[in-house]
Write a structure and sequence with these properties.
By secondary structure, the protein is mainly α. The chain has helices spanning 5-8, 24-36, 49-68, 70-74, 83-108, 114-122, 140-157, 166-194, 198-217, 229-234, 242-260, 285-295, 299-312, 314-332, and strands at residues 270-272, 277-279. The structure holds 3-hydroxybutanoyl-coenzyme A (3HC).
Length: 344
C-alpha cells in the first residue's frame, strides 16, 4: 500500500456526498503526492469528489460500451460460415459481457450501484462508444470489428492498465489480454477473406472502408475539443491524449493493412519522414458529434434492444438473488422465502 495511504484512507465519503473535512488540505496534498509518485488510489482512500466523478463517468461509459458492443457481432452468430467461426464468435461476444461485469464492479467500488448506471444508460443519460452505432452488414464486418475496433480498444486501454485508480487498472489487465485475442481473430478472419475469392476480397475491403473512419473516432474528439483530457491526464487516469493514441493506432494499422492486402480508405494517408509518423486525412467530426447526439444509423436500435434484454432478464436477476440469499442463509442459519426476503 502507498506510503501516503495513512493520510488518505479514513472516512472516505460516499460518491457525490458532501462532507465536512477539517483535514481536507492535508488529504488533498497526500492524494496529489500519491498520484505524483505513481502510487495506486484504492477504494478506501480519500479522493477528490471530481476525481471520483470522472472515474465513474469514464468507467461507466466503458462498461456500457462493452455490453452494447455485444449486439453488432451477436447479429452474425447464427450466420457464421463454419462451426469454428461460430465458436470463436460466441466466445468473443461472451468475453465482452465479462468485460462489462469487471467494469461495473470497478465502478461499484466508487460508491455507485450497477442498477443506477444501467438506468442512466437506458435513459440516455450516460454514453457508450460511438462505434457501436454502426451496422454490421456482412460477415466481413466481424473481421473488421476484430481488427480495427478491438485494435483501437487495445491501443486506448493498454495505457489504462497504468491508471491511477487501482480497481480500473487491474480490470484493464485482463480485458487487454482478451482484446488481444479478439484483435487477432479479426485479423485472421479478414486475411482469409482477403486471400479468398474476388468476391470475398471485395467484401473484406468494403468492411474496412466502412469501419476505418468510425474506428478513428473511437479515440474521442481532437485534443483541442477534448473537455476532460487535461484533468484526466493530470490525475493519471488517462496517460495519453486522444490524438496521441489515434496517431499510434494509425501507425500500427498501416503495415497491417499492407500484410492483409487491403487498403485504408484515405487518399491523404502517407508516411511523414520528418515527423516519423503517418499523416492522415481529416476526420468528419460533424458525423462524430451527430452519432453522440443519438443520430447514428443504429443508436435507436441498440438502446431499444438493450432495454428489452434488461426487461426480459428481470426473472434471471430475481432468481440469482433468491439463490444467493438461500445460499447465504445456509451459512448464517437464517431462512429466506423464494424472493430472497427473510421469513419469520
Ligand atoms: N464515443 C462516445 N462518446 C465519446 C467518445 C466516443 N468514441 N469519445 C469521447 N466521448 C465523449 C466523452 O465521454 C465525453 O462526454 P461526457 O462529458 O458526456 O462524458 C465527451 O465525448 C468529450 O470527450 P473527452 O475527450 O473530453 O472525454 P474523455 O477524456 O473521457 O476521453 C475516451 C474519451 C478516450 C473514450 C476515454 O473516456 C476513455 O479512454 N475511455 C475508456 C475506454 C472506453 O470507454 N472505450 C470504449 C471503446 S469500446 C470497447 O472498449 C469495447 C471493446 O469490446 C471494443
Amino acid at each position: 500500500m502507498a506510503t501516503a495511504a495513512a493520510h488518505r484512507t479514513a472516512g472516505a465519503p460516499a460518491y457525490g456526498a458532501p462532507h465536512a473535512d477539517p483535514d481536507g488540505d492535508a488529504r488533498q496534498r497526500a492524494f496529489d503526492a500519491a498520484v505524483a509518485a505513481d502510487e495506486r488510489v484504492e477504494p478506501r482512500d480519500w479522493m477528490p469528489d471530481a476525481y471520483r466523478a470522472t472515474l465513474v463517468r469514464q468507467i461507466a461509459q466503458h462498461a456500457h460500451s462493452e455490453i452494447i458492443g455485444m449486439q453488432p457481432e451477436a447479429n452474425w452468430i447464427t450466420r457464421a460460415p463454419s462451426l469454428r467461426r461460430k465458436a470463436i464468435l460466441m466466445a468473443k461476444v461472451q468475453d465482452e459481457a465479462g468485460h462489462g461485469l469487471y467494469l461495473y464492479s470497478a465502478a461499484e467500488t466508487l460508491g455507485v450501484s450497477r442498477d443506477e448506471l444501467l438506468d442512466k444508460l437506458h435513459s440516455g443519460r450516460q454514453k457508450y462508444s460511438s462505434i457501436f452505432n454502426y451496422p454490421t452488414l456482412t460477415w466481413a464486418d466481424v473481421g473488421a470489428i476484430g481488427w480495427l475496433v478491438d485494435g483501437a480498444a487495445i491501443t486506448n486501454q493498454v495505457p489504462l492498465c497504468r491508471c491511477s485508480y487501482g480497481p480500473y487498472a487491474r480490470a484493464m489487465v485482463r480485458v487487454c489480454k482478451e482484446e488481444s485475442f479478439h484483435q487477432r481473430q479479426g485479423y485472421e478472419l479478414l486475411l482469409a477473406l482477403s486471400r479468398g475469392t474476388p468476391e470475398q476480397h471485395a467484401m473484406a475491403q468494403d468492411a474496412v472502408d466502412r469501419w476505418w473512419w468510425p474506428s478513428l473516432m473511437m479515440f474521442g474528439p481532437p485534443d483541442d475539443a477534448s473537455q476532460h483530457s487535461a484533468q484526466s491526464m493530470a490525475w493519471k487516469i488517462k496517460r495519453h491524449s486522444n490524438d496521441e493514441l489515434r496517431q499510434r493506432f494509425v501507425d500500427i494499422c498501416v503495415p497491417q493493412a499492407e500484410s492483409l492486402g487491403l487498403t485504408l480508405p484515405d487518399p491523404d494517408l502517407k508516411w511523414n519522414e520528418e515527423h516519423g509518423r503517418h499523416d492522415f486525412g481529416a476526420i468528419d467530426w460533424t458525423e462524430f458529434w451527430d452519432v453522440l447526439k443519438g443520430n447514428g444509423p443504429c443508436n435507436e436500435q441498440r438502446l431499444t434492444q438493450r432495454r428489452r434484454a434488461h426487461d426480459e432478464g428481470a426473472w434471471v436477476r430475481e432468481a440469482a438473488a433468491a439463490h444467493a440469499a438461500k445460499h447465504a442463509a445456509k451459512h448464517t442459519g437464517k431462512h429466506t422465502g423464494p424472493t430472497g426476503v427473510e421469513q419469520a
